[in-house]
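Hi support team,

I submitted a single chain yesterday and got back a structure, but I'm not sure I'm reading the token output correctly. Could someone confirm the output below corresponds to the sequence I sent? I've pasted both exactly as they appear in my results page.

Thanks,
R.
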Amino acid sequence: MIPFLFASVLAQTPAQPPQIPSQEVLLPRQIRVLPGQLDKVPVFNSNSPELVQQEGILLSTFPKAGMATPAAHLNFGFNGRFDVFAHHIAKAATPEDLRTLYLGVVLHNPGDRPVTVDVLQAASYLSQPDAPFIELPAYVDNNRGDVYAGPGSRAMSDVLRGKRQEDFPAQVVIPPGESRMLMNLPIPVKTLEPPINGRSTSIRLYSDGLVYAASLAKFAAVDAQGEEQAPTLAEWEALLRQGGLAGPRDRTPTPPEQTSGQVVYGRVAGVSEGSRWQTQIVDDASSADWALAIPPVGATFSYGLSLLRLGTHGTGQIQTAPMLARYPDTAYEAHGNYAIEYSLTLPLRNDTNATQTVALLVETPIKEEKPKNPGNMRFFEPVPRQVFFRGTVRLRYNDDRGLPQTRYIHLVQRRGQQGEPLVLLTMPPGDRRLVQFDFLYPPDATPPQILTVKTLAPAR
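Hi R., thanks for writing in. Yes, this is the structure output for that exact sequence:
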């Protein structure tokens, strides 16, 4: 699976007692194909190389003409809605080299009139000190937005809530033929032990004209007083024109047609297609009576979240965003769907003749392509230490009193971990209850997960 250097190196966990060996357990889980599909919004997806120690171009969609390294430019323009996602790490190459690495995102207007880019939502956080990888319980209420573990967890929570961080302007106006900085932020390591830090960024944008984008990595210059200085726009533009790809390069991915042996998914550097998966989950989409019947007592059904190649749990459904443009040594697909929003509506209905208690859960079963035991999924007991998901989900529904509720819950799940109820609904016969489930898939998570609907057996 994708190596998650960022979280594993930066996680701040106390010394642990010896781990009790995990045993696989089979649990009944009927997994269904998730209706709908990703939208067509392009995503500037900058995640390779994840670890940056050589300055240069991380991702450029500029035209190739006039560039010193034409292969570093993908010639892809954005117009209208698009997203920017960036997730990179700085680590001192030697103990003495503690320079601050800056991450810059440049937008360019190639046209003959000004272009206005609206910054709809935006968040960018460092691991240190903004959002360290702290140990958290599996389930924590996060209505105030102050619970997070890692910069990806925090950034996705902010964007889910519709926030625009104060570091970002509401608009960027780009004169004809000129460039402007969307972001020019540091990833410092000087005071850290070990000297490693990372930054996760998610930005939603709307442009009223054609623009090109580039993310670049550059070390801070030092002035005559020995103080570090952030790179200027002119310095970023010079790097864009004269530089090559940043390094070191990540592992080259396995071609999609290879399905046996060691499979390397790779990290993403390119333009992926799809910012949001929005759908209503119903039993019969052709029926005028849109509803999702709850499962029988004690039973479940589930829907995949971020299902990917060789990890579809028997559905054959690959939810991974396709690439519209990419570098040859980077991922063929946007595995993990980082920063992509899932917006799922479940119009639940109790078709039984008794009052039922229904739970919604997020779970992280052991990844499978073709299950050996159809109708079941594999989990671990006890779960291993490796965290596979850190992030906030939102649920909107009417409670048992008929009052509207909005809840944010931060989840931490390890490989093979069963879920805890996110919400419990007491549904009389014939009752209907609309539940809206939303989250942005956080970086430093390992797909896939599942959303499970379960009707609880009566307590004895």
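A quick pointer for reading it: The helical segments are 5-10, 151-160, 233-242. Let us know if anything else looks off.

Best,
Support desk
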